[in-house]
Each structure stands twice: as C-alpha cells, then as structure tokens.
Specification:
With about 325 residues, the chain is α+β, with helices and mostly antiparallel strands. The protein has a domain at about 30-60 and about 155-305. The protein has helices spanning about 1-25, 95-115, 145-155, 165-170, 210-215, 225-230, 305-330, and strands at about 35-40, 45-55, 70-80, 80-90, 120-130, 130-140, 175-180, 185-195, 205-210, 220, 235-240, 250-255, 265, 270-275, 285, 290-295. The strands form three sheets. It has an eleven-stranded mixed beta sheet, with helices on both faces. A three-stranded antiparallel beta sheet has the order 9-16-12. A two-stranded antiparallel ribbon has the order 10-15. Strand 1 and strand 2 (about 45-55) form a beta hairpin.
Length: about 325
C-alpha cells in the first residue's frame, strides 16, 4: 500500500507537470521546468525531445509587445532549412496597424541576435473564440547554419537537460524553437531529434539506451538550479507510438539506471520509465535503460503494483481533465 501511494504521488507530479507544459502558453508561462521525453519505436528508431526554460538575461527581445496572444513570440529553426519568427496578436486588444508596427520593430532584435535578415513574410487573420487573431510571420532560407547554431547555443542553459544540446547534437536534430515572453522577460527552448534505426532489434538481444550517448554528451549533467523554485526535472521513456505493446517484440527491463537521489519508477509490461529530480544543482553521471527484446508472446510476470499504477494513471488523467477544464474556463 505504501508503494502504491508513492507511485500515485510521483505519477501525479509527472502528469500534472506534463499538463502544465501543454497549457503553459496561456496560464503559467514563467513556470520553471526541465523535461526530456524519449520514444523508442519497434523498428529501432528513437525520438528525443527536450523542453527547458532559458535564462532571464538571455531573452533576445528586450521590448514590450502589446496585444500578443498568450504573450508569446515564436522563433523557429528547422535545422539546416529555414528560420522564422512568428507573432500572434489579439485584435480585441490592439489594432492591426499597431500590431504590424510592433512586429516589425521586435523582429529586428531577432535578426540581430541570429545575425540574419528575414526576406519573406506572410500575414493572415482568423477567428478564435470570440475574437480575431492577426498572424504575422517573418522567415528566410538564406543563412549560414554554423553561424546561426553558434548564436543559438549561446543562450542554451549551461545546466539542466538542455545543456546536453551541443554542436554535434544540433546537426543531427530536426528542429529547435524558442517560445519567448518579451513582456515578462521569460522563455523556453524546445529541441527535437530523430535517430532512425538507432537500434537493430533481434529476439534475445540486450540493448542499452544511454541518454548521454544519444546527445553526444560526455557529462556529467548538472540538474537545473531552478528546480527548487517552482518545478521539477523530469525524464520519461516509453514505447512509441503509444503505451501499447509492439506487434513483433516485447521489452523486458533489465535495469533503469538513474541516481539514487531522484524519484524513479517503471511500469513493467507497459514499458514506461520515469525519473523525477526535485533538487537542483546535483550531478548526474549516468542515465541508462538496459533492456532485452523477447518474442511478443512472452509473458511478463504479473505484478499487482503494475495494475495499481495503471489505475492510478487513469485517475490522474481524470483529475487533469477536470483541472484543465476549470483553468480554461478561467482564462477564457
């Protein structure tokens, strides 16, 4: 019963954090968080995503921009292909003329930051609930990838999960984008990387998912010093595309190797692994999942705690849905 209660508390923290992340653009843009998700596909592909706050002093738009939907400016680098800067203005809070003028002024700071010149733009309007939104996008395909990636790395946090992003990692990534809140001097960085055929699964084989190795990161990892303020550092690994079993293979956990000072757990048979770090500044020397591939019909020994964990997940999702509904009604 004690273990079930601990699992409930950890899952509640984890899923509430994920819910806060999804709603953060509207409700809590300044929450401190550090989040890593790793998805493993049956064909051996691996996808990783990092979502982290960036330092107050690093925000590249130092001017107030009024009338922004959610207070957000987006800067998106589709790696090696193009860069864009996007504004969404609520036309019940500002006029289109004022919005355009503000966007033209604010985008200059992004151009200076990245040492680029946006040479194309697109404008559109659409209805959103009870008001109209004006969308203004600046973009370019003319830039030096090495130069822009160096500029980006300069504002990546030096501690926390995002510190694993480096020159080699960006080259292998798909996308890195920034959600910037210029009016409150806050922001987040998001990084996506896809590793096709990272594993070559065979029945009976043993495999290691080494998070440091995926990022070409030598370590150690320093947990974000912002953690004690208003958030957590959370790592989760799961099978893709859902929590369901694969069709050909089954995963049997050998070891989920994380530091003893974090809260961690697994749901065996459902292939879900998580680690929650609630203390900032600590050093992590290894983050590894060691597992074995067996036939799909292989029976994992039943553990009542697993079923309890799944029931608690369902309960947590119900709580989250209710909280989400109430929060959205409040901001609406």
């Amino acid at each position: 019963m004690v273990n079930a209660l601990k699992m409930f508390i950890l899952l509640l923290q984890l899923f509430l954090l994920g819910n806060i992340f999804s709603l953060s653009n509207i409700i809590v843009p300044n929450i401190e968080y550090d989040y890593l998700e790793v998805l493993i596909y049956e064909n051996g592909d691996v996808r990783v995503s990092i979502h982290s706050n960036i330092d107050f002093e690093s925000i590249p738009i130092p001017v107030v921009v009024k009338g922004l939907e959610g207070g957000v400016v987006l800067v998106d680098y589709i790696i090696g292909r193009y860069v864009d800067c996007e504004f969404y203005f609520r036309l019940d809070l500002t006029s289109r003329d004022v919005a355009e003028a503000q966007a033209v002024e604010a985008v200059k700071y992004v151009e200076r930051w990245l040492s680029i010149q946006f040479d194309q733009e697109n404008k559109s309007e659409y209805q959103w609930h009870t008001y109209k939104v004006f969308n203004y996008v600046f973009y370019t395909k003319n830039f030096n990838p090495d130069a822009i990636e160096e500029k980006i790395l300069n504002i990546i946090p030096k501690d926390g999960l995002a510190s694993m992003i480096n020159k080699e990692t960006i080259k292998e990534g798909e996308r890195i984008f920034f959600i910037i809140y210029p009016n409150i001097r806050g922001g987040k960085v998001h990084f996506d990387m896809y590793k096709p055929k990272y594993f070559k699964f065979k029945i009976g084989g043993t495999y290691t998912l080494d998070i440091f190795k995926i990022f070409n990161f030598t370590g150690p990892l320093i947990i974000s010093k912002n953690v004690p303020k208003r958030g957590y550092t959370v790592i989760q690994i799961r099978l893709a595309p859902s929590y369901k079993e694969w069709t050909k293979f089954k995963v049997v956990t050998i070891k989920w190797e994380v530091p003893q000072f974090c809260s961690s757990g697994t749901l065996e048979g459902y292939n879900y692994y998580f680690a929650n770090f609630g203390v900032g500044g600590k050093e992590v020397k290894s983050l590894r999942l060691i597992f074995k591939i067996v036939e799909s019909g292989y029976k994992v020994e039943f553990n009542p705690a697993n079923m309890c964990g799944i029931m608690l997940i369902i309960l947590v999702f119900g709580i989250i849905a209710f909280i989400t509904y109430k929060l959205r009604r409040r901001v609406g």
